[in-house]
Design a protein that fits this description.
Layout: H1 2-29, H2 35-39, H3 46-55, H4 63-75, H5 89-124, H6 129-143, H7 146-160, H8 179-217, H9 220-227, H10 232-244, H11 246-250, H12 252-270, H13 275-284, H14 288-316
Amino acid sequence: MRTFLIRRLLAAIPLLIAVTFITNAMLVLSPGNYLDTIKLNPNISPDYIAHLERLYHLDSDNVFERYWYWFWPALRGDFGYSFLYNQPVWEMIGERVANTLLLTGSALLFSWGLAIPLGVMAGVYRNRWIDKLCSFISFFGLSIPSVFFSLLMILFAAKTGWFPVGGIHNQAIWDLMTPWEKFTDSLHHLVLPTIVLGTIGMAQYMRQMRSEMIETLSQDYIRTARAKGLSRGRVVFRHALLNAINPLVTLFGFSLAYLLAGALITEFVFGWPGLGTTVYEALRDEDEPVVMAAVTMLVLMLVIGNLIADLLLAIIDPRIRLE
């Protein structure tokens, strides 16, 4: 186990360097930078702008030089200052990362919590009405675009008034709320974006779970267990489910990657203050330090997600030896 963890962590280093270098190269080679907007202000002298260019190393178009200026401080935990917000990037990114993890974690619980039991029932009661209902839910989740689904949810919230239209909490009275009221208000704001982000993943996992259950239930050891007189529930949940769920655990790392990519759009539509809106605003205003820090955090989250998937697979299936 220790050897596996060390090997995976070491393999993540070149991945992180490659992704951040490519991102930084695209930012450097793209036309203009954050100071182009300041140059339009006649009250700011060219000498001061030149000073800012030297201070933030924007006076060079050398990709390797610009990357080194970012990489060496970042290696020590210093991601610089945000041009737009004029504050340390790490302080701003930390809160946004927590918000994104809250949303993606809720979407994972939603998608897996529904996909596994529905997939099991669809596989056990194959070609019956419950299987057809699950197939319709899966078809709906895979077919509807996330942006359109988000807009439908916002329209639903606006028409019914049952849910807030956007944001992460009620900013008007947030400071006057008790801790319990803050908790319930945050959950209330979390419902719709969680449904949007988790539905598409739920549809994919449900189809996978159904197919794995159908294949597992046709195995010889399942027929032997039934022949011994074991109850249907014991056969399904004790013998079949633990083997059928292995491919879904393998998909955990990829599902996290998909959720993070989908969260970028969902956060923007719902006004959720996470990494998605942060990356959009930083790209729009060419705030390079924020973009680099956000990309770094996304890559780290993906690496950790895949590592957790491998560890869970080893725990669930004792036949697997990570070494």
